[in-house]
UniProtKB/TrEMBL annotation:
Coiled-coil region: none
Source species of the chain: Balaenoptera acutorostrata (Common minke whale)
Superkingdom, natural source: Eukaryota
UniProt keywords, alphabetically: Ubl conjugation pathway
Record flagged with keyword Protein biosynthesis: no
Name of the protein in question: F-box/LRR-repeat protein 8 isoform X1
Signal peptide positions (record): none
Domain F-box: 2-48
Length: 374
């Protein structure tokens, strides 16, 4: 009797196995020699998602260790408040630092809440070690890491990963500890960087000017989060600096996320007319109508996504209708308060590219699900 899998070429099995969860890959490798060869094939592991909360339990260490060399892009999930999940993530990152200098991309995602006063030092130390070893790293995404990121990490990335193309540090921490100086050093050390996510306080006029330099590679995405006290106190970034950056990189998209910590006077400093805002997320404790009207009048050519979390009002309804009439390129709009029917009609009428919206005419139980436009 032929062994299972002998009827299929190894490359076909590998194509199938690459879509399996980690535990199923390990199980497939124990079926027969042909499946074991296919399950450990490098193409199976190029893009890998691992959940430390469930997938590593019962995993054979030698099997996982042998496959780490093949991982090029890793998305790693763990629960920081669960010790086994946390330790598994740290061990995996440490093993990668020792075995895989060719890692190209890393995305860390925390699930659930972290413990009170948890600085995440052990996790961040493992990230430091990986960045020291993985000099080929091109993409690093720490947006879902709920720990305070600092200058030391940015400088480690800057000098350890010269081929870096994207870096996202705009996480949900309540304290911003990445200074403008380290960001400027990052831009100088990583000339290929084309996407960057930061807290507002980490960005400076000098950094905008560095991005607009004539010899700079095309820059595509700048994601700014304004959510902590340092962001509220950040000096304004002049409109002329934004205008020069937009001229230098006409394809640049800016994503702005304004959180309740930002007072009204800071909002007016952030929303400059020349910023090429593609996505705007407003969750302000104060006035929301003014920023929506400002976006309608200045970001009509670039805005593709809007998210609003505010109290319902006639003024907000009118501002949303104005935005719908002016911003024909909108693809998504999500408003987490009840709106009047004319708001829904305005977006459906004036935004032909609309693909998804959350515009509720009556109160509904949460979570509110978006409506997909077919």
């Amino acid at each position: 009797m032929a062994e299972p899998g002998e009827q299929l070429p190894e490359e076909v099995l590998a194509l199938i196995f690459r879509h399996l969860p980690l535990r199923d890959r390990a199980a497939a490798a124990r079926v027969c020699r042909a499946w074991a060869a296919a399950a450990t094939c490098s193409t199976v592991w190029h893009n890998t998602n691992i959940s430390c909360d469930c997938e590593l339990e019962g995993m054979q260490p030698q099997y996982l260790s042998a496959c780490l060399d093949h991982v090029q892009n890793l998305r790693l999930e763990f629960v920081p408040s669960r010790e086994p999940s946390r330790l598994a993530a740290i061990e995996l990152l440490t093993a990668l630092a020792g075995r895989n200098p060719e890692l190209r991309g890393l995305c860390l995602e925390c699930r659930g809440e972290k413990r009170l006063f948890d600085s995440g030092r052990d996790v961040l130390d493992a990230v430091h070690a990986l960045c020291r070893a993985a000099r080929a790293l091109r993409h690093l995404d720490l947006r879902r890491l709920p720990f305070t990121l600092d200058d030391a990490l940015v400088l480690q990335v800057a000098h350890g990963c010269p081929e870096l193309c994207s870096l996202f540090l705009d996480n949900s921490t309540l304290v911003g500890s990445v200074g403008p100086g380290s960001v400027l050093e990052l831009l100088e050390a990583c000339p290929c960087l084309r996407a960057l996510g930061l807290h507002l306080a980490s960005l400076s006029r000098t950094a905008l000017e560095a991005l607009a330099a004539p010899d700079r590679a095309p820059f595509e995405l700048l994601a700014l989060r304004c959510a902590c006290p340092e962001d509220a106190r950040a000096p304004p970034l002049p409109n002329e600096a934004w205008a020069e950056l937009s001229r230098r990189h006409p394809g640049l998209a800016v994503e702005l996320e304004l959180e309740p910590a930002l007072p009204a006077e800071s909002v007016t400093r952030v929303l400059q007319p020349a910023v090429p805002v593609a996505a705007l997320r407003l969750s302000l404790s104060g006035d929301t109508v003014g920023p929506v009207r400002f976006a309608a009048r200045h970001y009509a050519a670039t805005l593709s996504a809007l998210e609003v979390r505010a109290a319902a009002s006639a003024e907000l309804n009118a501002a949303l209708e104005e935005l719908a009439e002016r911003c024909a390129g909108l693809r998504e709009v999500h408003c987490f308060c009840v709106v009047r029917p004319s708001v829904l009609h305005a977006f459906r009428t004036h935004c032909p590219r609309l693909r998804s919206y959350t515009l509720k005419l009556t109160r509904e139980p949460h979570p509110w699900r978006p409506t997909l436009v077919t």
